[in-house]
Structures are given as C-alpha cells and as structure tokens.
Here is the input.
Amino acid sequence: MNGRHLQRRRVTLALGGGLLGAWLSRAAAAVGGGAASDAAGPAGAADTASACGSGPGWADTLRRDLDAMALQLTQTLKPWPVPARVYTPEQHGLAAGELATAAIQRAVEACAKAGGGTVRLAKGDYVSGTIVLRSGVMLEVAAGARLLASTNLQHYPEHRAQRPTVQDSNMGMNQSLIFAEGCERIGISGKGVIDGRGTKDNFPGEETVGATPGRPFIIRIIDCKQVVICDIHLKDSPCWMQNYLNCDDLLIDGIHVENQANHNNDGLDIDSCRRVIVRNSFINAQDDAMCFKGAGQRLAENILIEHCQFYSTCNALKFGTDSQGDFRNVLVRNVVLGGPARDMRAINRRKADGGISWEIVDGGMLERVLVHDARIVRAESPLFLRLGDRGRVRPEQKRPAPGVLRHIVYDRISGDDNGMRGSFFTGIPGAAIEHVLLRDVDLTMSAATGPAASAAEIPEAPAEYPDPHMFSTVMPAYGLWARHIRHLTLQRVRFRVHGKDARPEVLADVCRQ
Here is the structure.
C-alpha cells in the first residue's frame, strides 16, 4: 500500500445495557457485550451476524422486491415516441448574433401546436433566457451546438409553481433557463452542450442554506409526466443544475454534468417523483451530486439508479435535507461515487463530505432502500444516516413529529482513499433508526491526525442542519459509530485504516429491544 502501514483494529460494541437488536442478539457472545473482540474470519472482517445465517430475512425479501421493481421499470419506462416533425429557431426568425430566446420559444409553440416533435438547435451558439417547454416537445441541442444561458438576470422572468412546496417558501427558486409545468411527453436531448455560464462573476447572488436569489437553475420541471433527459452535456449552472419536482415516469440516461462554478451547484435533484430511472450518467458537482428530496410532500417511490458516477465536494449520493414527504423502494447499483479526483474540476478542492448520506429531519419516512455494488472513494464519511427533528415545513403547516428511517441495506460496498472522520449512524432520543444491514463492506480510511471526539461529547442536536461534518472532524470510531439505532446487522464488514489510529473500528451504542 505505497509503503504505508495498514492497520486492522479490534471491534468494540458499546451496547449500553442492551443487545444489538434481534439480528445481533445471537452473536452477543462473539461480540462480548461491550468488551473488545477480535474481528472474525481469515480476512479480518467483522461478522457480527454470523450466527444468523445469511442475514435478516427482511433484507433478502427487499432485494427480491427491488430487483423485480427494477426489471419492471426497465421493461416499461421507455422514451416516448417523438413525432418526426422538426422545428428550428432559424425557421422562426432568429437572426445571427441576436438573443435567441424569442425565436426558440416560437419554435416550441409551433411544435406543440402541431402535435409535437423536435425543436432543434442545430449548430453554433444560441444565447437565451428562459425557455418554456410544452407538451409533446423534445428540445434537442445537436452535436456542435451550444445553448448558452444569458448572463442578464432580467432575461429570466419568474415562474412560480402553481402548487407551492417547501422549496418555494425556503429556496425562492423561481428562475430557470428551461422550465416546464403540468406537461406530458417532454424532453431534452442531443450531443451538444447546455452551458449555464454560472460563475460567481456572472451571477453573484448570495449563498445561504435558505433562499438563492439572483441565480437561476438550468432546468426546472414541475408536475410533468413522461420526461426524458438523454445524452446531453450540462455545464456550470448559477445554482442547482436540474430539479424535477412531483414528476411521474422520469428517464435520465447518458447525461454528463459538470457543475463546478458557483455556490449550491447541485448536479441532479429529484423531488417527490415516481417511477424514475437514472443510468449511464456522470455528475461532478460542487454541492450534492445526486440528491433526492421530499419537499413536494407526496410519496416518492420506485426509483432505479444504475451504472453512474457521482462526484461531489459535499454529498455524492443523498436524500435530504428537505425530507417532508415519504420515500421508498429505491435501488442503487453499480455506481462509483465520492470526491472529485485530481484531474476533475473542483472549485473547492477537498474530499466529499459524505459518500452515501440518507437524512430524515423534517418528519418524512425513508424506507426500503438498497445500495449494492458501490465503490466509495475520497469521502470523509463514506456512509451517513441521520434521523433528526428539524421539522421544516411551509409556514402555514403544523410542525411535524420526527420521521422514520428504516430498512436500509448496504451490500458489497468497497472503496479507498477515504478521509479520517469515519461513517456514523445516529437518531435522537425517542426516534431511533431501525433495521439497517451492512453486508460485504470493505472500506479503507485515513488515520486520525488529531484527537477524536468521544461518544459522550457528541450532542444530540436534533434540529441542526444534517451533514456529515455536523459534529466533529474525527468521530469516535474510524470505521462506524452508531447511536439511537435498533436492529443493526454487520456481516462481513471490514473497515481498514492507513497508519495508526487509537479509535476502535466499530463503536455502537444501540437501543434496547
């Protein structure tokens, strides 16, 4: 390992007077009821559920159910057939060198009126403000063409959602380059480039955890059905790159996203959508790369993510922070994720804050989520689960009780060059995370360069903004620390560390039955 010492630590499970849940109770003798125990197996992997056979039955059932869901989605969620009609801005009065917004919009309206087809940006550069898509329209940016976002904020009139959500009251996200609401059969395609030109010089709007005035999105699609986004290159939004809210039958295939130009540069945000496939895509984002949200406050379900690469200096794969709605039946497979490599663009050169971050803090429910065959690299906390009680909803709504985070599986997870913080799972008193399985996990971390926080020092902080950096740069275990969790199963789990680290590999203070 390049001359560095690779250390394997003993596993400590601080059981807090109880057992590690039903699926670890029969292995209690092996883990020692709070005493240190050598990791089992010839490879040194911690197998704290070996007495339970192949693991909890719910996880095996979940795998079968989600495989069937993925097969059904793959067979039925196809691109909608685009009529052969083609319309161009040049046919609708575009003159060389002028702002293209009006001519592109005239082409869109003519295409929709005729029953649908393609609006094609065929070659060269098209500088535009807001384009509003209509049902039946596929916007194509052909190879050799670029759709360039205007740098004049006045070219982005506000479009307020007809059905407001928490995103409206919290973010103020009313400007975008491409907008659609209440449409069917729409899409964006082509081998060309959409460039938001969203640098801080062009769009210096404030950065806050709340509103994002003065910085448009590139794509915002609301309450639409049969949405196809394929092949396109997306670059440098002033804010989030793309947001799909309360959509059904969303297919994203083969896109390439480079969003490293400004604050809040998310790569892909999917909110309260049903029947979704994201595949064969690359995202490198300053903020969250692939992010799910529940601000639409309706059930999001039946989602397949596969054969993708997600890189971020924040969270590479995330649910949150807005988590007002319920979210279930999600399968993520065959992905690589973490922080940008040295040869990738990054305006903040650092590791990802979190690799896979599932967060419920606004009263919603996240359940039945499986990630398998994932590689996590260059992440300070490869795995992060947080059940909190921020309770953010619309101003007129009653503050909700803490939500639910349960039935979460990590299977065949590997990776190296990760940071020193360590993974951690934590609920709060009275609201525990439930039923979590780690199986065949092999992650390598960096040794701590400073003192670690003790478990007793870490506050509950139920209403704090959830992010893996929320407590300490060095958590109590270099592998996994867990608190306020029921039914945690570790099977053939191995955390390794480069160098010497005084922390235990695993430290779990779990709930009684």
